[in-house]
Amino acid sequence: MRKEFKRELVERAATLALEFRKKGFHCSESVFSAINGTLHITDPSMVRIVTGFHGGGGSHRKDPNVDLTAALEELASGRDRRPPEELPISITGHLCGALAAGIVCIGFLYGRRRPTEDLTCVDELCYELHRRFEARFGEKLCKELRKKYVPQSDNHTCECIYQEGARLAVQLILEAPSLVDRCPKVEPWKDLIEDLQLINER
Question: How large is the average pLDDT for residues 20-36?
Fold first, then answer.
């Protein structure tokens, strides 16, 4: 695959991550949908398997009358800028949902179906995704990332993390067979690359 097509796929994932966020999806959902929309890994409705990873693993209403979905959207969109202790919800704040979504996508492509299958490919890729994510952001935990990056953003959101999380995962997946010798060459995105080539040749 030529370098320019890899770059196009990586940037497509970043663009889609932002588009899915603007539709109302949270970090794990936006990044999963962006990677899947770029690489055609699985049925798009499978986004539901990553929903619980947003906010670092879910959230809790401090008052049972709070509309959790609405409160989370206000927070994710940057409209609610109160400090965590003043929010009507508590966020788990563990592993960033953008990173978790990338790990899930790696699992879809390279995960095991039987316990006797080798773990080398999936484990090495997940380890490398963690390493690259932490090298880029200095953190992997939602709570710490929000403290650091939300105040720096123009719209008081994590959107830069959504975009970069999608970029990092797609780039790693595209490099997988050359990075880890035990990774099979899996290319569900081959048709998309051929379409891009045809468009660029016109």
Answer: 97
In this structure, which amino acid lies at residue 40?
A: H
For 64-74, write each residue's pLDDT tens digit. Answer: 999 999 999 99
Cα–Cα distance, 152 to 148 (Å, whole number): 7
pLDDT category at 5 given cuts 50, 70, 90 is confident
* β strands within 37-157, DSSP E: 59-61, 89-91
pLDDT of residue 192: 59
Per-residue tokens: 167: 């970029």
pLDDT range class, residue 174, cuts 50, 70, 90: very high
| Torsion over CA: 149, 46, 186, 110 (sign) | positive
Whole-angstrom distance, CA of residue 169 vs CA of residue 106:
8
- CA-nearest of 47, 27, 45, 37 to 142 is 27
Helix (H) or strand (E) holding 128: helix 120-137
How far, in Å, are 23, 33, 35, 71 from residue 121 at the CA level?
33, 22, 19, 39
Say which DSSP state 1 is in: -
Strand partners, 91: 59
Question: How many residues can be counted in the chain?
Answer: 202
Give dist(CA 34, CA 47) in Å, integer.
10
What is each CA distance from 175 to 12, 123, 139, 193, in whole angstroms? Answer: 16, 15, 23, 15
List the beta bridge partners of residue 90: 60
Helix (H, G, I), strand (E, B), or coil: what is residue 194? helix
